[in-house]
TrEMBL record:
This is ABC transporter permease. Keywords: Membrane, Transmembrane, Transmembrane helix. The chain crosses the membrane at residues 39-58, 78-100, 121-146, 152-174, 186-211, 246-268. It is a multi-pass membrane protein. It comes from the Bacteria. Residues 61-265 form the ABC-2 type transporter transmembrane domain. Coiled coil: none annotated. It comes from Gulosibacter sediminis. Signal peptide: none annotated. It holds the Pfam family ABC2_membrane_3. It is found in: Membrane.
Length: 275
């Protein structure tokens, strides 16, 4: 005598979970299309870093100068720096706009659907990382077609290390979005990234006080981690080479990540307390 097993019927909670998972894919697709249609965002995220790389990294006499450790040349170093700039701009801008959308009532509308706030943040994170891939892919391709030279595995290592530490600037965008709750403030915060890049010794070799200050600025750690496979901690100032240890950029990224996360939590708490 044999018994026939039957599958348990799907509960409403299971159906809602499947629906919300499907909605993440749909939302990511729609949001990507929407972001890619915003030409101004693409200009600052991809076009500007690409143009700066071609001018300062591929069209100068020093571009093909080899780095002291032989892992690549100066053009490759500048390529990684401007790819990081594009990735940071993408993650910060999208995270800031997500915070603004939630505080302008979009979160309450999501609350009446299976698509919860957690799904919204997951979807925005996926979109941010896909958009951050754009400047990295475009600028690395431009480098490969012009004067950038890196040893084989360093292409992949630098590409990954451009993307992962840039997540810190999604916290920066969230902090600005939750504290100021203004699209203008988020736009100004994206502009501030240019200043952070200069202070972080990313756009041009600094010297004196500014060079000594650079390890304490937000972009420095992110940039040095992205460049680590290529430069191995060697940083060029205006007049000398300086050697850093790996713990220094890691500490910088962790500290600034905690600062931005704390500011984002403070902004979210202020927004909640006023409701």
């Amino acid at each position: 005598m044999s018994a026939t097993a039957t599958a348990p019927a799907a509960t409403p909670r299971d159906s809602a979970k499947v629906a919300s998972t499907n909605m993440i894919g749909t939302y990511v697709r729609i949001e990507l299309v929407r972001q890619l249609r915003q030409v101004s965002n693409l200009v600052f995220m991809v076009g500007l870093p690409l143009m700066l790389f071609l001018i300062f990294g591929a069209m100068q006499e020093y571009s093909t100068t080899e780095l002291p450790n032989g892992n690549g040349n100066v053009s490759a170093s500048i390529m990684v720096s401007f790819a990081s700039y594009g990735a940071i701009t993408a993650t910060a801008g999208l995270a800031g706009s997500a915070a603004i959308e939630l505080q302008q009532g979009w979160g309450r509308q999501l609350g009446i659907t299976p698509f919860r706030g957690t799904h919204f943040l997951i979807s925005k994170t996926i979109v941010a990382m896909v958009l951050a891939l754009l400047p990295v892919g475009v600028i690395f391709l431009a480098g490969a077609l012009t004067t950038a030279r890196l040893d084989g595995w360093i292409w992949v290592a630098c590409g990954v290390l451009v993307l992962v530490p840039a997540i810190v600037f999604s916290l920066y965008g969230l902090a600005i979005g939750t504290l100021f709750r203004s699209e203008t403030a988020v736009g100004a915060a994206s502009g501030m990234i240019v200043i952070f890049m200069f202070l972080g010794n990313a756009f041009m070799p600094l010297s004196g006080f500014l060079f000594d200050l650079s390890p304490f600025t937000p972009v420095w750690g992110v940039m040095q981690l992205a460049l680590w496979p290529l430069q191995e901690g060697t940083v060029l100032s205006a007049d000398a080479l300086t050697q850093y240890e790996l713990w220094q950029p890691i500490t910088n990224v962790v500290v600034w990540g905690l600062i931005f996360a704390g500011l984002a939590a403070l902004g979210a708490r202020r927004g909640t307390s006023r409701r």
